[in-house]
Write a structure and sequence with these properties.
Layout lengths: L7 H19 L4 H22 L5 H13 L2 H8 L11 H10 L8 H13 L17 H11 L2 H14 L5 H24 L3 H25 L22 H4 L6 H6 L5 H17 L19
């Protein structure tokens, strides 16, 4: 059964039941994301003096920096949806601090990231309008290739330009200025480090970990939950799935479907919310590729 097959009254009733369950998971303060977002960036920053002082081998600094870059996005992702604190509330400043600070290792401008991400939610899996469609692919290798191509300067600029052109966000000018400052600062720091004789350290502590971390993030957050990118609509543009590498290594994205349905549910609450919502989602025909899901809910390529 899918949402189209339900009567209008029954569809409305199920939606109300879904919202009531989801509200429970939006109430808890996600302290984990605050500690994670601030702590991860501070750990990443500490690697630099440790490596420069010889207290930490460069190879170890490289591995730890790659881990930090891989973990950098998710706290900001929660902040983008104001899951930490909504605008107008007492702790909204903390939400914004986590949003900006967590993304420093990735050199990803917070406001630009949010404007793009909002377009993704509104147009998920649309080849023309979804800025994350560049991560699509029938295999993980095809996705990695497409994602790598999308990160080339000319391609990335084109994607951002298209998003900003059709966005109605009120803070676009500020977002662009902040992005220019952040990216200019990044390249200036790399240039100064190279000029000072620390080009190898800069490469292994920032340039390469940033790209490796970003690739892992786009695979887990962009490709896997939306594969095979063929369906749109509230209950079909994202799937529930069972990752072969487990929930932790897939960055919790087995339950990304819950995030698209209720974006303000924090990451750590998406799994319990999914299990409580699962029967209702099944009634709406939500896409579910877990092994125990009914066959009619699975993706076309399953």
């Amino acid at each position: 059964m899918n949402a189209g097959a339900l009567s209008e009254d029954l569809n409305a009733r199920y939606r109300r039941e879904e919202s009531a369950i989801a509200q429970k998971y939006m109430q808890r303060f996600p302290w984990e994301m605050v500690v994670w977002g601030l702590g991860n960036t501070l750990i990443w920053m500490s690697l630099w003096p440790l490596v420069f002082a010889g207290a930490l081998p460069l190879w170890a600094g490289f591995l730890l920096s790659t881990l930090c870059c891989t973990l950098a996005y998710l706290p900001s992702h929660d902040a983008q949806h104001q899951s930490i604190a909504k605008k107008g509330t007492r702790l909204h400043w903390l939400n914004e601090l986590v949003g900006h600070f967590a993304l420093l290792p990735l050199v990803l401008p917070y406001k630009i990231a949010w404007i793009e991400h909002r377009e993704h939610h509104a147009n998920a899996n649309d080849p023309e309008l979804d800025p994350d469609y560049c991560f699509h692919g029938k295999t993980i290798w095809a996705s990695l290739w497409n994602a790598t191509q999308s990160r080339q300067p000319w391609a990335q600029s084109e994607i951002v330009a298209k998003v900003l052109e059709r966005s109605n966000a009120s803070n676009i000018k500020q977002a662009v200025i902040e992005a220019l400052v952040l990216r200019s600062g990044y390249y200036l720091i790399l240039a100064v480090l190279a000029w000072s004789g620390f080009a190898i350290e800069a490469f292994f502590l920032w340039w390469l970990p940033r790209h490796l971390g970003y690739t892992y993030i786009t695979t887990c957050l962009g490709w896997a939950p939306h594969f095979p990118y063929e369906e749109t609509g509230r209950y079909r543009d994202t799937r529930a799935w069972k990752s072969p590498i487990g929930t932790v290594l897939s960055l919790g994205m087995e339950y990304h479907q819950v995030h698209h349905l209720f974006p303000r549910i924090p990451l750590f609450q998406t799994a319990p919310a999914y299990w409580e919502l699962r029967d209702l989602l099944e009634r709406h025909g939500a896409r579910d590729d877990r092994p125990d899901a009914p066959a009619h809910l699975k993706s076309a390529l399953q």
